[in-house]
Specification:
- The complex is a heterodimer of chains A (about 775) and B (about 260).
- Chain A has about 775 residues and is mainly beta.
- Chain A folds into 2 domains: about 110 residues, Sandwich (Immunoglobulin-like); about 650 residues, Beta Barrel (Maltoporin, Chain A), CATH 2.40.170.
- Chain A has a 22-stranded antiparallel barrel. Chain A has a 5-stranded mixed beta sheet with strand order 9-16-17-12-13. In chain A, strands 1, 4, 7 and 8 form a 4-stranded mixed beta sheet that branches.
- In chain A, strand 49 and strand 50 form a beta hairpin.
- In chain A, about 50% of the residues are buried.
- With about 260 residues, chain B is mostly beta strands.
- Chain B folds into 2 domains: about 90 residues, Sandwich (Immunoglobulin-like), CATH 2.60.40; about 110 residues, Immunoglobulin-like, CATH 2.60.40.
- In chain B, the strands form 2 sheets. In chain B, strands 2, 3, 4, 5, 6, 7, 8, 11, 12, 13, 15 and 16 form a 12-stranded mixed beta sheet that branches.
- In chain B, a hairpin with a 4-residue loop joins strand 4 and strand 5.
- Chain B is globular, with a radius of gyration of 20 Å.
- The relative contact order of chain B is 0.19.
- Classes of the chains: A mainly beta (about 775), B mainly beta (about 260).
- Chains A and B meet through helix 6, helix 7, strand 44, strand 45 and strand 49 of A and helix 1, strand 1, strand 14, helix 2 and strand 16 of B.
Chain lengths: ~775, ~260
């Protein structure tokens, strides 16, 4: 395999030799006011058609041209374009700072020079979210939330009312790779999914890959959500924050050394418990319920060639009920990165990443006191290289060594407790990968992004590993020593996507990619729970595999002011996991005996019309889709709709800047209800009414729809400080979207049964937040 | 379950709704029990559609036999329509029983082994840990789990003669060899001083534990619903609904103080 990579690199390098003698222009693009590196800013040489490139995740770009006089044009959404004349006689560094301009009107209307990147880029299935836009979208209780905002995009579905869980193109929620500064976030939600772990204050850039995953990403089947934190202002100290209904935020940032280094610290804490104290219910009064987040980052640029970044996240949820029990859970991540420019064509990033998710449940009952803990810890060493061979080839290649340590569950109890201490064996494994990809401008019209990723999974001892028969009883059992490889899997993942330009504003794109997944979430409840458990691929669990093909038509209108896209996709899923009936997933050494394996398929059409610029901006997204699963042990082996199967899904987002001070926004969603299993009969067992079922997920919840509105009032301009008010109304017309449907003996008509629908957030919920910055 | 604590705190609303549900009625339901108390009974009925009243047509005229591992066979006779029993049949711990039901041209079989009897030591009423503002009580059962063997327990609770709608099923995964006192948490019937509470404890086999555990999981309503519901895994053949359980039984009754 390595030979193939070496061969490819030599091949590309050789092709470079025959090119005309060219010089390299390279450098960084930054925000003028804060010094933040701009990700994805585009750079073009006006005199050379089709010469565009864009900055990478660290604001770095590299572009080639023969000797001559040129005009370099730098553009970035929300910023004023900047043109720089250069006389190219030898390779040179051009660092540029772009300005947002203070005049809102100007920014929105004229400063943005719309470009046609979305048409020309071979990348498919990528959604880039603009943080300014996210901050305008109205949300529940005024908590701005990137995870809720992405569910307004076509192909992305929310896992439920007020929930941050999401499904991408028919994938399960654990098939999304959620990265915060390259660290995996295992449980991206707070308070059972009502809020996400991402505090918008600390977030700089959000990219969601729904398909056509570039080769540098791997390990999950359906999507990559790549979230990057702010670096911190390296020009001035600023303090900003907000006071909202359920939480308050504070962010401090500033230079460590002006122009060279900066830091950022951002914190958020909720005070939901205050509401509980006001409750009439005595039990709720005595309870604890809050969460907090802390994001911190610092960076230092030694010179044009070397920079170091360190960032971390720490968040925790705490819930307790008087003297009965307490539980807490949270993620922590840490990333240390080193950027190095070997030459003005070869950019390197080395990362050491730590990620941990843990939870604990404690019972304080006098007779049955115990504590359950579980955690997963990752260490990840990554080396990513980017080589700008010439303007027609940009290579990316790298290596990735990821170590997992999973402690599925430890019960500790005192001698006097009625509970025994028990520990489920820890599991260790490596997920390693090597990749190479090339973005090749094959002509004026055709651009191809192709690559290959090799992933290797190694499950290691120590421990006892069993195989099981169909009934779940152990067949064989073998004990391995520390470091012994119990099972290994190799997978080759081809990635390919191409765009063909029909004209300056229209293109056709196609992509194929294979993804594999070696870490699997075990949860047989229908939404995310803090006690969710992860397992690695093993002698019983094969790697999940997804193959996706997609094709699309991309069209910009009115000088790129409007973007339209229509994409269709088809996805085949192998080695999918479901649970045997009555599965015991918690504190079970033989948890793998509780699983059943099958396949799946998902296909759909996504239409997306977006207006990125102007006083009135926003988007309309529509998805028509189907997603099904097939398991021998379920539904008589027939295909059945996955619970996230949603035929129609419509989102409309509108933002209107009335004047310098007022901005209004509204979102509307409509979606087919989730697939659900309802009873088709009832009987009596042991004196209890019991329901009988026929097919899996044979019914639908009623369709959901909701309108939310918001408004932002910017405070009057001050030299020293700035403040704003954010108002919102969630579920304006108080629609009762079904949350749970349950079946029970009727409370009113004896000897009959009834279906009961529970809705939450079923009245209009207003919110208000005061934001400040100085 | 944790979620349920949060639900009252967020704005929620409940209403009874009409659903158009398919009618897959007429399937056989077998509720077969062999116990050590000479109250063994096999009840045969059919399921009905969701919208029907809770009256289940009995299945009469079936041939029901139960044999033990020594080859001794008992033919059960029908008393009340659909209820089959035999005065000869007295279950014994560690015996394995085979059930055969023949009706409507089909044969249904099942097998179950009666576990050793574990004594129900006490049942006590304590202040409800979750609702203790109004003197509400919670029933706790206690028993000594024998070490080194797998045990499964099913409890049925009656308050003033009315059965509590809840499934109380436990194993000894975390309590092997312990003196166990276990609150039977439920929110169906509030219990106050003066109430008569009866608890039946059954020691059941592993297959029946899985059956009841699967039903219990489906009753938990987490966010968006609990586990996807389906018919619990049964130890009966031919897709019959229900179970065959050879179990020990004992009851205790207290007046709540």
């Amino acid at each position: 395999m390595l030979k193939t990579f070496a061969f490819l690199i030599i091949l590309f390098a050789a092709s470079g030799l025959y090119a005309q003698k060219k010089f390299v222009i390279s450098g960084n693009v930054k925000d003028e006011a804060t010094g933040e590196q701009l990700i994805g800013a585009s750079i073009r040489i006006l005199e050379i058609p089709n010469s565009g490139t864009s900055t990478n995740n660290y604001g770095f770009y590299s572009i080639n041209a023969p000797e001559g006089n040129y005009t370099l044009l730098f553009t970035y959404i929300g910023y004023q374009s900047f043109a720089r004349k250069i006389s190219l006689r030898k390779s040179q560094t051009v660092n540029v700072s772009l300005s947002t301009k203070t005049n809102l009107q100007e920014v929105v209307v004229s400063a943005n020079k719309p470009n046609n990147d979305q048409v020309t880029s071979p990348q498919m299935g990528l959604e880039k979210l603009n943080m300014a836009q996210i901050n305008q979208v109205p949300v529940l209780l005024g908590e701005r939330d990137i995870l809720k905002t992405i569910t307004l995009l076509p192909g992305v579905k929310s896992s439920g009312e007020g929930n941050t869980g999401f499904y991408v193109r028919g994938g399960a929620s654990d098939q999304n790779l959620i990265l915060l500064d390259e660290a995996t976030v295992y449980n991206a939600s707070h308070l059972f999914g009502f809020f996400s772990t991402f505090n918008s204050d600390a977030i700089k850039d959000v990219s969601l890959y729904k398909g056509g995953m570039p080769a540098e990403y791997g390990g999950r089947l359906s999507s990559v959500l790549d979230v990057k934190m702010n670096e911190g202002n390296n020009q001035n100290f600023t303090v900003q924050g907000g006071i909202g209904l359920i939480s308050s935020r504070l962010k401090i940032e500033g230079p460590l050394v002006k122009d060279k280094g900066s830091f950022m610290i951002s914190a958020r804490r909720t005070y939901v418990d205050v509401f509980l104290k006001a409750s009439k219910d005595t039990t709720l009064q005595g309870s604890i319920l809050y969460f907090y987040d802390l994001n911190a980052k610092a960076n230092y640029h030694f010179n044009d060639k070397n920079a170091i970044y360190i960032s971390g996240y720490f968040g925790k949820d705490v819930l307790g009920l008087k003297n009965t029990f307490g539980t807490n859970w949270g993620n922590s991540t840490g990333t240390l990165r080193f950027n190095h420019l070997f030459t003005n064509r070869l950019f390197s990033n080395t990362s050491l990443v730590y990620s941990n998710y843990n939870f604990a449940v404690e019972s304080f009952s006098t007779t049955n006191s115990f504590k359950v803990t579980s955690q997963i810890t990752d260490f990840n060493l990554k080396e990513d290289l980017q080589y700008s061979l010439n303007n027609n080839h940009t290579l990316k290649f790298g290596l990735n060594v990821l170590h997992h340590a999973i402690s599925p569950g430890d019960v500790t109890a005192s001698e006097s407790s009625g509970i025994n201490s028990k520990s489920v064996e820890k599991r260790y494994g490596f997920e390693n990968a090597a990749y190479i990809s090339d973005e090749w401008k094959a002509g004026d019209k055709l651009t191809v992004l192709y690559g290959l990723r090799l992933s290797g999974m190694f499950l290691q001892g120590p421990g006892t590993f069993k195989t099981y028969d169909a009934a779940g009883d152990a067949l064989t059992s073998q004990t391995y020593g520390s470091g012994d490889v119990v099972k290994s899997y190799y997978n080759l993942e081809p990635r390919f996507s191409a765009s063909y330009l029909l004209n300056e504003e229209t293109s056709l794109k196609a992509s194929y990619n294979r993804n594999t997944q070696n870490i699997h979430l075990l949860s047989n409840s229908t939404s995310s729970s803090p006690t969710d458990l992860y397992v690695l691929s093993s002698n019983n669990i094969k790697p999940e595999i997804a193959d996706q093909v997609s094709t699309g038509w991309f069209k910009n209108f009115k000088e790129n002011q409007y973007e339209f896209s229509a994409e269709v996709y088809y996805k085949w899923l192998q080695n999918q996991i479901d649970y045997k009936n009555g599965a015991q997933l918690r504190i079970n050494q033989d948890v793998e005996s509780q699983l059943t394996f099958g396949s799946g398929r998902a296909y759909g059409l996504e239409l997306f019309l977006k207006k990125k610029y102007g006083r009135f901006n926003g988007w309309v997204g529509y998805t028509l889709s189907r997603t099904e699963r097939k398991f021998d042990a379920i539904n008589n082996g027939n295909y059945f709709p996955a619970k996230q199967d949603r035929t129609h899904d419509l989102s409309i987002v509108g933002i209107y800047n009335l004047n310098k001070r007022w901005t209004f926004s509204a979102t509307f969603i409509y979606g087919t209800g989730n697939a659900i299993t309802y009873p088709t009969g009832k009987y009596n067992i042991n004196g209890l009414t019991t329901y009988s079922y026929s097919e899996r997920n044979g019914y639908r919840l009623p369709p959901t729809n909701r309108l939310d509105v918001g408004a932002t009032l910017e405070g009057k301009e001050h030299k020293k400080y700035h403040s704003s008010w954010t108002f919102g109304i969630y579920n304006v017309y108080g629609y009762h979207n079904p949350y749970i449907i349950t079946f029970r003996d009727s409370k009113t008509v004896p000897n009959t049964t009834e279906a009961l629908e529970t809705s939450i957030f079923s009245t209009a919920i207003p919110s208000i937040t005061w934001n400040f910055k100085f | 379950m944790l979620m349920m604590l949060l639900l009252p705190a967020i704005i929620s609303c409940q209403k009874v709704i009409d659903l158009k549900l398919k009618d897959a009625s007429g399937q056989i339901v077998i509720e077969a029990n062999v116990d050590n108390n000479n109250t063994s009974i096999v009840k045969l009925s059919q399921n009905v559609s969701f919208t029907s009243v809770n009256t289940y047509p009995p299945v009469s005229g079936a041939t029901v036999t139960i044999s033990d591992q020594s080859g001794k066979s008992y033919t059960l006779t029908e008393g009340i329509a659909g209820n089959y029993s035999s005065s000869q049949l007295q279950g014994t711990s560690l015996n394995t029983y085979n059930l055969t039901v023949q009706t409507g041209g089909k044969t249904y079989t099942g097998r179950s082994t009666m576990p050793p009897a574990i004594a129900l030591d006490t049942i006590t009423a304590k202040n409800d840990e979750f609702n203790n503002g109004n003197n509400q009580k919670e029933i706790t059962v206690s028993y000594s789990d024998p070490a080194g063997i797998k045990n499964q327990y099913l409890f049925l609770m009656y308050v003033n003669g009315v059965q509590v709608k809840g499934i109380f099923v436990y194993n000894d995964d975390l309590t092997d060899g312990k003196h166990v006192s276990r609150p039977l948490r439920q929110d169906d019937i509030d219990i106050y001083p003066g109430d008569m509470v009866k608890v039946e404890m059954q020691c059941i086999d592993k297959a029946n534990y899985t059956y009841w555990f699967a039903l219990q999981q489906q009753q938990q309503n987490g966010p968006g619903g609990g586990v996807t519901p389906s018919n619990p895994p049964s130890n009966l053949s031919n897709n019959a609904l229900g179970y065959f359980s050879a179990h020990t039984t004992q009851t205790k009754t207290i007046r709540v103080q």
